[in-house]
Amino acid sequence: MKTALHSVSYAGAWIGQDRLSLDQFLDKAVKLGYDGVMLVAKRPHASLLDMDARAREECRRRLGANGLQLACIAGYTDFCAGSDHLDIPHREMQILYVTELARLARDLDGNLVRVFTGFERPDVSYDQQWTWCVESLRECAQRAAEFDVTIGIQNHHDIAAHYESMYDLLAEIGEPNCKAMFDAWSLALHGSDLITAVRKLAPFIVHTTVADYVQRPRFRYIPHLVNYQEQPAVIRAVPMGEGFIDYHTFLKTLKQIGFDGFVGYEMCSVLEGGGSEENLDRCALQFLQYMRSLEWEIFE
C-alpha cells in the first residue's frame, strides 16, 4: 500500500485552517515523505478554471521531478442537486465537470477521479434520486473511459452510503471503470462490521481515504423537566490512531483481499489542536508513523 496526502488538508476548508498554494502543497507532500497526492478539483488547488495547458504541464513536471504519483483527482459532485429547479441541467453540468476531470487526471499521468453520489432531498422519491445517481455515474464512467480513467465513488453522500447499497449501486451502474473509494469512517459511524463490509466490496475497491475521529456526546437542557435530552454526538478529528475507528482491522482486511492501492490521509474538518500549518504537519507525519507501525504485521 502507498500513502497519499489529500490536498484538502491544506486548502483552508474549515475556519482557522491554514491554506497553501498548489505548489506549496506539493513541496509539503515531498518534505513529509508521502508517495503521492490527492488533488482537490477546486480552488485553491486543481480547479478546472485555473488548470490550463501550461499549468497542467508544470504540475505534471513537478510531480515527476519530486517522485510523487497522482493518487487521484478529488471531484465534488451531488447528482441529486437541483431538484427544486429541474429546468436547469445540473446533472449534465456535473457530468461535463467529471469528464473534464478525467481529462485533467490523464494529463497529470493519473488514472482515477473521485466522485460522490448525492445528498438526499425530502421532496423527491428515493428511487428517483437513486436513478439520477446511477444514470449520471454510468455516463461519467463511459466518458472517463475515453481517457483510460476510472471513476471512484466515495461512500460519503446519502445515496448508497451503506456498504450493501454501495455494492448494489456499482452493480447496477455496470461499468468496468466505475469502482469504490471505500472509507472506514462512515462504516464505523453506521455501526457496520468492517471485515464484512470490505469483503463485500472487494471486487470494487481501488482506493481508501482515512481520518480518525472521536465522538463527543451532546445534550440539550430542557428547563421545565430540569433534565437533558440526548442529541447526536459531534464528531471531531484527531491524529491517526487516537480515535474510535478500528483502522488496524480495516487495513489488515484490505491487505487480505489483495488491495494494493493508495491509502490517502485527509484533514478536512475541525481538528484537535487547530488548523495551523504546524499542527497539520504534525498530524500528517503521525499518519505516516502509524502506517509504518503496521508494516511488520499487515504489509509484508
What can you tell me about this protein's structure?
It is a single chain. By secondary structure, the protein is an alpha/beta fold. Helices cover 40% and strands 21% of the residues. The protein contains 9 helices and 10 strands. The strands form 2 sheets. It has an 8-stranded parallel β-barrel with strand order 1-2-3-4-5-6-7-10, surrounded by 5 helices. Helix 4 (126-144) crosses helix 5 and helix 7 runs parallel beside helix 8. The chain is globular.
Spatial sequence of strands, sheet with the most strands: 1-2-3-4-5-6-7-10
Named CATH topology = TIM Barrel
Query: What is the overall shape?
Result: globular
Residue share in helix: 40-55%
Instruction: Give the number of helices.
Output: 9
CATH class: Alpha Beta
Instruction: Give the tally of structural domains.
Output: 1
Unreliable runs = none
Provide the gyration radius in Å: 19 Å
Helix-and-strand structural type: alpha/beta
Distance between the termini: 10 Å
What is the element string, with H for helices and E for strands?
Answer: EHEHEHEHEHEHHEEEHEH
Question: In short, what is this structure?
Answer:
This protein is of the alpha/beta class and 300 residues long. It is built from nine helices and ten strands.
